[in-house]
Fold each of these.
Amino acid sequence: MITVSGLTRQYGKRLAVDDMTFDVAAGRVTGFVGPNGAGKSTTMRMMVGLTRPDSGEVRYHGVHYQDLKWPARSVGCVLDARVHPGRTALNHLRATAAISRVPAGRAEQVLAEVGLETAANQRAGQFSLGMRQRLALAAALLGDPQILLLDEPSNGLDPDGIRWLRNYLSDFAARGGTVFVSSHLISELSMFADDLVVIGGGRLLAAESVEAITGRHDVAVIVETPQPVELVALLAAYGFVVEAAADWLIVRGTTRTVVSQIAFDSGIRVLELTETSRSLEDSLLDMTRTSAEFAST
Ligand SMILES: Nc1ncnc2c1ncn2[C@@H]1O[C@H](COP(=O)(O)OP(=O)(O)OP(=O)(O)O)[C@@H](O)[C@H]1O
C-alpha cells in the first residue's frame, strides 16, 4: 500500500501539484491519469525522492521512501526510458544492479522477463523507443520489488508491446504486487487498471475504482457482430456485463475503444459499435477542463 498525503510542489508561481492525497492498494493496478502538464511526473518524482515536495509525504507500507532499507528491492520505478546509448542492454542492467546492490545474475533474468534476451548484446543506442521502455522496465525489476511505479510506459510500444505490458502488469498485481502507472489516455488505462487516480491542474479530481467511474458516467456500447457468442464469452472473461437484444449486444460500463480493442485482439469481427452515452474520455475532459479553468484564474 502506498499512502500519498498532502503532497504539494510549486515552481515559481505555478502550483504543479496541489495538496494531493490518495492511496494505492496492493494487489491492484492503479492508473494515474490526467492531461499533459497535469502534474503526473512531478507527483511520481516526489514519490521516489527525485523531487523534493514543499509539503506532504509519501509512505510505503508506513515507511518513507528515504527510510526504506533497500529501495530498489521495495519499489521499482520507470520515470524515464533514457539509457546510455553506447552500453549494451546486459551491461546497462549489470551496472544498474551494482548500483542497487542487487546480484549481477539478475540482469539475465530480468532481460528474459521483458522479452529482450535476444537483444542482450545490442547497444541501447540502436534500440527503438519500445525496446528502451522494456529495458527500463527490466532495470526496475532487478531488485524483485513488490511495488512498480511507471510513468507513461506504453509510449512508443507497438500494439503487441502494449498488450504484453498490460498482461505483465495485471499478472504482477494478481501476484499481490502494487502497480501505479500513468497515462494521459484514460481509455487505455481503463482496459486493465482496477482503480484510477484522476488529476488535472495539479489537483486530485477522483480516486476510485474504474467501475465506479464508468458506472457513474453511465456508458454503454452497442455492438453488432457476426460472432456474438464468442464476443459475449470474451467480454464476460474481462468482467463486463453483456445483454443480448435482437441482433445487438449491449455492453455496460465501458467505452467503444475498449470493446473494439478486445474484439480486435482476438480476431472477432465487429460490424458496428455505437456508444449510447458520453464516453469516459469526455467525462475526463470535462473534469479536467473545470480544473484547468480553476488553475488559470
Ligand atoms: N523542473 C520544473 N521546473 C519548472 N516547472 C516545472 C518543472 N517540472 C514540471 N514543471 C511544471 O509543472 C507542471 C506539471 O508538470 P508535470 O511534468 O508534472 O505534468 P505531467 O502531468 O507529467 O505532464 P506530461 O505528461 O506532459 O509530462 C507543468 O506546468 C510543468 O511545466
Note: Confidence is low (pLDDT under 50) at residues 293-297.
Amino acid sequence: MATDPDHTFDVIVIGLGPGGEHVAGTLAERGQRVLGIDNRLVGGECPYWGCIPSKMMIRAADALAEARRVDGLAGTVGEVTPDWSAVATRIRDEATDDWDDRVAVDRLTGKGASFVRGTGTIAGPGRVDVDGTTYTAARGIVVNTGTKAAIPPVEGLAGTPYWTNHEIIEAKELPGSLVVLGGGAIGCELGQAVARFGVEVTIVEAGERILAHEEPAASDVLRKALEADGVTVREGVGATRVTHDGSTFTVTLADGSSLSSDQLLVAAGRHADPAAVGLDRVGVAKDSRTAAVDDRCRVADGVWAVGDITGKGAFTHVSMYQAGVVIRDVLGDDGPPAEYAALPRVTFTDPEVGAVGLTEAQARDQLSNVKVGVTPLGETTRGWIARADGLIKVVADADRGVLVGATVVGPAGGEVLGALAVAVHGQVPVDRMRAMIYAYPTLHRGIEDALGRLA
Ligand SMILES: Cc1cc2nc3c(=O)[nH]c(=O)nc-3n(C[C@H](O)[C@H](O)[C@H](O)COP(=O)(O)OP(=O)(O)OC[C@H]3O[C@@H](n4cnc5c(N)ncnc54)[C@H](O)[C@@H]3O)c2cc1C
Ligand SMILES: NC(=O)c1ccc[n+]([C@@H]2O[C@H](COP(=O)([O-])OP(=O)(O)OC[C@H]3O[C@@H](n4cnc5c(N)ncnc54)[C@H](O)[C@@H]3O)[C@@H](O)[C@H]2O)c1
C-alpha cells in the first residue's frame, strides 16, 4: 500500500465508510495530503453488508411477489419457484466482488490518497496510531468508523451461532425458518425478503410496534403486508433467553412462549463506540454512544466526525451529506452548515415506507399549532388501480404555513417522498403547494388530497 514515508499528512481519515471514503478521495483530489485508514473494506458497511446487497435481495424478492400478483390480474403464471443462489451469486459478482475492495482501494489511491489497512486510534490532537505506527495530521482528523450490529444482553444469546446482517448477506443458502430479533428497518426489510423466498419468518419486536420511529399508521400497513407474506409479527414482547442445540434455536419470550427456528437474525439496532477510536482523548465522554458534532461536523478543534457515529441518522445519505460539510470546512470553502430538519429515510419493504422530517407525534411535542392531512392510497386513482395499500400523510406547522414532516407508505413510497422532501427542506408554503398541478393519475397526486385535508 502507498504510505507516506514521513508519516505526516494534512488530513487523516479513520474509517472509510461512504462518507470517509468521499472525504479522503475529494480532499486528495483537492491537493491535500491524505491518509485513509480502514480495518475492513473501503466503502464500509453500505456496499458490502448493508444498503446495496440488501437492496439486491429486496429487488429479487419483489420480482417474486410481482410474479405472484399475475394471478387474478393478468392470468396465471403457475408455481413461482424461488432460487436464492441467483441472489447470492449477484451479491458476490456484482455488489461485493466476493468482499474484495481492490477496486475501491485503487479508486482512492488513484485520487492521490494514501491508504493503510489497520485499526486507527486517536492518540492525541493531530496524532493517530495504526497498529503501533504513529501518523501525524497537520490539519485534522476525520472519524468515520460507523457502527456494528448491537447484540442485546439476552441470556444465552452470546454463545449461539446467531446471524447479524453480515451472515445473512453472505448466505449462499437460506434456512427453512428464521426468527428475527428486532422489527426496525433491517428486521422488516430482510425478514420480508427472505419470507418471499420461502423462509418461515417470525419478527420479534420488544417495543410496542415495528418501525417504531415512523408513524403508527406506517407500522400498521407494514404489519399487514408482512403477514400477507406469511411473516409472523410479535410486537411488545422481547426475548429473554436463547439456546441452540447444535441445529435448532429456541427463543424464549417475555410472555413465557417460545419459538424454534433453524436460524436467528439479530437486527436489534446498531452500536457505535467513540472511545474505541480514541475520541475520549479529544473530549468525548468515555461512555458516550455517539460523537456529538456541531453544524460543521466538528467534534473538537481539528477533529471531525461523519456517519452513523454522529447519531444524526444511520443512513448512507447522512454520511455522504456530512462528508460534503467536512470537505468544505477543512478547505475553508463557503457553504451552508449541516441541518437535519428535512432528513429523509426510506425503509425498502413492500410497500416502501418513506418519511421526511417530523412525525405527527414529534411535531406535537415541538410545536403548538400542528395540522395533519392523510390520504389513504386506495382513494387515489392510481392507488385504486394498483390495489395499493398505503397512505400519504403530511404534517404542517400551521403557524408558519409549511410542512415539517411527511410520510408515504406505498409502492415506490421512497420515490413519491422526493416531492415532499423538497417541500419540507425548501419550506414551500402550503398555499403554494396547493396551487400546484399534480399529474393524473399518479400516486403523488395523493399529496394534493392530503394538503386539502390539513385540519
Ligand atoms: C442491512 C443494512 C441495510 C442498510 N440499508 C440502508 C439503506 O438502504 N439506505 C441507507 O441510507 N442506509 C442503509 N444502511 C445504513 C448504512 O449502511 C450506513 O448508514 C452507512 O454505511 C454509513 O455508515 P458510516 O459512514 O458511519 O460508516 P460504515 O459504513 O459503518 O463504515 C465504517 C468503516 O470504518 C471501519 N472502522 C471502524 N473502526 C475503525 C478503526 N478504528 N480503524 C479503521 N477502520 C475502522 C469499519 O470497518 C468500516 O469499514 C443499512 C445498514 C445495514 C446494516
Ligand atoms: N432502508 C434504510 O435506509 C435502512 C435499512 C436498514 C438499516 N438502516 C439503518 O440501520 C439502522 C439499524 O437498523 P436496525 O433495524 O438494526 O435498528 P433499529 O434501531 O431501527 O431497530 C431495532 C429494533 O430492535 C428492537 N429491539 C432491541 N432489542 C431487542 C430485543 N432484545 N428483542 C427484540 N427486539 C429488540 C428495538 O426496539 C428496535 O425497534 C436503522 O436505524 C437505519 O438507520 C437503514
Note: The first helix runs from residue 18 to 29.
